[in-house]
Amino acid sequence: MAYTVVNGWTVPGFTHERELGGGAAGRVVLAVDDLTRTKVAIKYLAGGLLADEAFLTRFRAAARSLSQLEDPNVVDLYDFVETSDGAAIVMQCVEGVSLRRVLAAQGPAGPLAALSMLGGTLLGLASAGEHGVPVHGALRPANIMIDAEGNARLTDFATTPPGTEAQSGPAYAAPELWDGVPATVATDLYAATAVFYECLTGRPPFAGRNMARQHREAPIPAEGVPGPLRDLVHQGLAKDPARRPASAADYLAALEEAAVSAYGPSWEAQGRGRLTELAAQAAQQPEPPKPKPARSSGRNPVVAAKQPGGGGTRTRWVLAAVAVLVVAGAGASAATLLNSDKKQPAAPATAQSSTPQPSPPAGGVDAKALVARIDRAVAQAPGALFSYRQTGCCGFPAGGKGTVGLAPGGQASAALPSYSLTLSGAGSARKPVRAVIVEDRFYVRVGKKWRSSPLSGRGYPAAADQVRQGSSVANLTALLRSSTKLTKSGAIYEGEAPAAALAQVPELGPMYARMAEATGVQRIAFAIKLDAGHRPVKFWVRAGPEKGRNQTMRGSFTKWGRKPAIQAPQSG
Q1: How far apart are CA 417 and CA 350, in angstroms?
Q2: Cα 118 to Cα 401: distance, rounded to the nearest angstrom
Q3: Less Cβ around it within 10 Å: N or C end of the chain?
Q4: Strand 39-45 to 86-92 pairing
Q5: Cβ neighbours of residue 227 under 8 Å, at least 6 residues apart?
Q6: Residue among 142, 104, 139 nearest 124 (CA)
Q7: Class of the domain covering 14-92
């Protein structure tokens, strides 16, 4: 049952189950996607943040980058929804508990678990940095989730307004933050080390009154830290940021060396196992009360600064430290793709199998008859407004919105459409452009003139070709015709189709061949929602597992009807 969270507004398309908690940034609820039944976490931003345009500008940029990042040490961000009524972050609901809860319930985690936690945190920071989000700005135990596999997963990137970091997390705030210096990689590493110290000893390195002075002047209390790990603590908690590790990758190298020397090459597996065990035990205990806000010194106010312009084997740790951690995995999960025109959370992963499936499709739906009904319906109303986005690994995202039209008398299952659209996301350096697609030609508006090129190659033409193929009704009917499993729930048809069969479809085959090669899958999962007249209204398609290496397509159609034919503009 949905309920009011912020001024009566909730993100449409989701049913709220219960409140998970909250803080200065806003309230977090557990919700279920009404269409896919996927559980997500939604953070409704507090009113103060909504009124801070500098914060919103910074967070929008971070959200765009985070939405393309999928890493075992970062909680997936599916969507940032903004309306005149409020704003909310739709993100992955991690099966696990926060590190704050683990420490409150279990006390010190021990050296191996603490090392595993710090390593995962550094991997997450490094991965985010590689994807254009160099600073977290709010690292503390409440923003580190421990999942069921023992991964330390970071959340709440960039949710602390610039200049307020020390006040928001005084126990973990580097000395320079108390002087109003903007958050940096160095301040994140300081905070990560303070959390590491708390995992080792059961308490932050500094607490009580006059926090600013303690962080600036008090000796680092390393006596309670195991001897082999004291140098790590001294490096990370250095008063001078120039004396801290230069990057998360550099700190990972130092961590690996210290851990192997002290605990042997199997330290990471042992630490992960212990962290998993502690998290499972903490989950069985009642949620601890929230800690009281730490008191900062009135003599050391925070000066608001001007805003500047996973787990794995030991081999992974070594490579991450040496190779500056280039993590594969662009593209968020393809889950809530039927609920809005914005990107949303992931649908349950489809099991992959090479075993031949029965024909007609398992699930009781006659795909051939359904395709015929769609063809007839779209032929009677061969135009619509559309929105589409493609994301995932092994390529750049592409998206567009505008008007789509089929040639008069054309069959939906055989014709690729024409478009008048705004094309976006064709690479991080490219801005949305006005474009038209007619037959095999691409037209783009440059200033007051139109430029024409073949619908192939790189850049905008390649992105336009992706949009045309992925959002075509022909694509949806090809999925239905090729399906080996197809079920119906209300107006939604959900199924899967062999990638090899889709690769043989005329016009569309190369697209699916590339998807299968990039993700290594044998089957493609999809869901299509039809209106009462059997015209598509929303869809999602995913190649690959929910978590990991995947590619996704999703889109929507509205206002089906007979629209003026889309004409090629005059080039000039």
Answers
A1: 29
A2: 43
A3: N
A4: antiparallel
A5: none
A6: 139
A7: alpha beta
